[in-house]
Structure formats: structure tokens, C-alpha cells
Amino acid sequence: xxxxxxxxxxxxxxxxxxxxxxxxxxxxxxxxxxxxxxxxxxxxxxxxxxxxxxxxxxxxxxxxxxxxxxxxxxxxxxxxxxxxxxxxxxxxxxxxxxxxxxxxxxxxxxxxxxxxxxxxxxxxxxxxxxxxxxxxxxxxxxxxxxxxxxxxxxxxxxxxxxxxxxxxxxxxxxxxxxxxxxxxxxxxxxxxxxxxxxxxxxxxxxxxxxxxxxxxxxxxxxxxxxxxxxxxxxxxxxxxxxxxxxxxxxxxxxxxxx
Length: 258
What we know:
Layout: E1 5-8, E2 13-17, E3 26-31, E4 35-42, E5 45-50, E6 56-60, E7 65-67, E8 76-78, E9 82-87, E10 90-95, E11 99-100, E12 107-110, E13 113-117, E14 121-122, H1 131-140, E15 151-152, E16 155-156, H2 158-168, H3 177-180, E17 185-187, E18 198-202, E19 210-214, E20 219-224, E21 226-232, E22 236-239, E23 244-254
Antiparallel strand pairs: 1-4, 1-7, 2-3, 4-5, 5-6, 8-11, 8-14, 9-10, 9-13, 12-13, 15-16, 17-23, 18-19, 18-23, 19-20, 20-21, 21-22, 22-23
């Protein structure tokens, strides 16, 4: 059996598509330094499985660099909305959530090439997750436009938003809201919800299709049209601009201890 190849992104934001076609639906994105396992290949397209969350899709093979070692625990995570990273005189602007392999506080390394990064970064495994960090990161992304399949400050969907924020604090979430809802500890009553909990919602059916992060004072931050803050209660999310409930509350889950 052929050994599964491991690839890494050296570009800022790469689309992952449902089919091997540039016109196909974008289902997710791969950020700088994130890794994939190569499952299949069709012409210049490769089917990949993301190392971080197990998500599968198709990518242009030219956007991936093969590596021999997969050690994500050695990676720091970038915390700047956008900051340049330099290698051999070239620069690439990477985003919040990008990974910095073998980062020593100044440089990262991919295939023995050094990348210099001067922005703020942290190894999520080295500190305790906190609501204050969640709130700070979430507010950095305020007004990011909604983008189906997006996972960056330049376009993001609801579950990409929660996954990206929690990645930066060392809590691994699945890619889609319906799968994220299967993780964490259930909060039985909305009155017992705490800042930092994730709330999951339905819209036109009983199937979970939306997620947001609970804040203080009955507020929720979520990606709906844009990353925004709305009110919520036991019924759901109330949009002040539309003066109506837009999402119906299904379940609340806890991932951190405040």
C-alpha cells in the first residue's frame, strides 16, 4: 500500500472544494502552515483530509507542498488579523489562525526553510483557555463578511468563526456546526449558560445549521451576513436591525471552565 503523503500550505488562504473543479463549491479553507493528508489525485487536483479537523475536499495540487514530518504540536498559531511572514526575500501575508511550525518566537520552519514572523503568536497547548481570550479574539473579527466555507478574517462562516477562535485557545472543534454540537458538555438550561459557551441553532428545519459564542449580558457573537453581536434568549437570536428572531435555539455546549 502506498504511504499517505502529507502536505502543508505555504500560501495564506487556499480553497478546499467539494469537487475537483475551480467552479465547484468551496466547503472550507486551508490556512498557512496547516496540513493535509493526500487521499487521491485527479489530474492537477488532490483529494485531501485536513490534519486539524479531518475535513475532506479537493485542492489544486500546486497549492500544497509535500513534507515528511507531521508534528502539529510543535506549531504556534498566529494571532494577528494579517501580518507578513518572510522567507528568502519573499513575503506572504498570513492571517489569524495560521500555523507556524517549529516556531521559536522569531522564526518558523518548513522543509528546513526559515520563515521570519514578527507578529503575535502563541502555542495554544501552553496556556489555559479563558473567556477573556475568546472575547478578545472574537471582537478582532467583528464585521468580517460572511463567506460559505470561509475560515479567515477576510470571509468566514458561522462554524469557521467558532472553530478559528477556539483553535487559538487550544480547543479543537469540528468544521461544521452540526458536528461541533456533538462535542463539549451540555448546558441544560439557558439560565445556566456562561460567557464562552457555544449556542447552536436551527432555522427552517430541526437540523442544527448555525452556531455562535455567548458573551455577557444576554449577547451572542456570530457570523450571519457578517460577524456581529446580537441578543439571545431561550427562544433564539433576536436581530435588532430586523426586529425579529432569526435563529431558534437548539442546544448550548460548554468547552472551557470559567
